[in-house]
Fold Ribonuclease T.
Amino acid sequence: MSKTEECNLLSNRFRNFYPVVIDIETAGFNPKTDAVLEIALITLKMDKLGWLHKEDTLHFHIQPFEGSVINSDAIAFNKIDPFNPLRGAISEKLAITSIFKKVKKGMKLEGCNRAIIVAHNANFDYNFLMEIIQRVKIKNNPFHPFVTFDTAALSGLVVGQTVLAKACKAAGLSFDNTQAHSALYDTLQTAKLFCEFVNRWKRLGGWPINIDK
C-alpha cells in the first residue's frame, strides 16, 4: 500500500479514531436528571481517494427514564411529546445496545481502536450520552472518555459561525429551519458539515501532510 493510500484510510485520518456523528434531544439541560427523548447517529466512511462521506444512520425515540425531569420549556422548544404512543419510543438500554453494536462493527471494519463523538456543541451530547451509558450499566463503552470533535468550534474557525443553521448556510449547505431540533435532521446536517470541513481542508491541500517523509 502506498503512502497516499495509507493516508486515505479512515483509521489513519483521525489517529485511529472512528468518528460517529450524534445528536441528542432532551427535556432539559441537566444530563443527570433530565429525560433523553431522541438519539440519532450517523457513521462515516472514507473513499479510496480520501473523501469523507456519510454511511449508516440510526435513530431512536427514547422513553423517559424512571424519575426523570421533563421541563416544559424544553418540550415547547423541541416540540416533542414524550408520552405520545405513536413515537414508538424504546428504552435507553435498548438504544445504547444497538448503538454499541453498530459502532463496534464499524470500528472493526475500519481498523479503528476507539470511537469519537462528532457533535454540534459536543459537550452537551457527550455528557448526556455518558449519563445514559452509566444508567443502563452496559460495559465496554467504545467512545473516547473525554475527546470529542465539536463542529461548533470547527464552524467558528472555518466559516465564522457557531449556530448550526448559520454554519451550514455559510458553508454552502442548505438548512430547513422547520426540521431543526429533530435529532435525525440535526445529525444529518452536522454530518454534512463535518464532511464538508474535512473535505474542504483536503481540497485546500491541508491533507495528507508530510506524505514524502
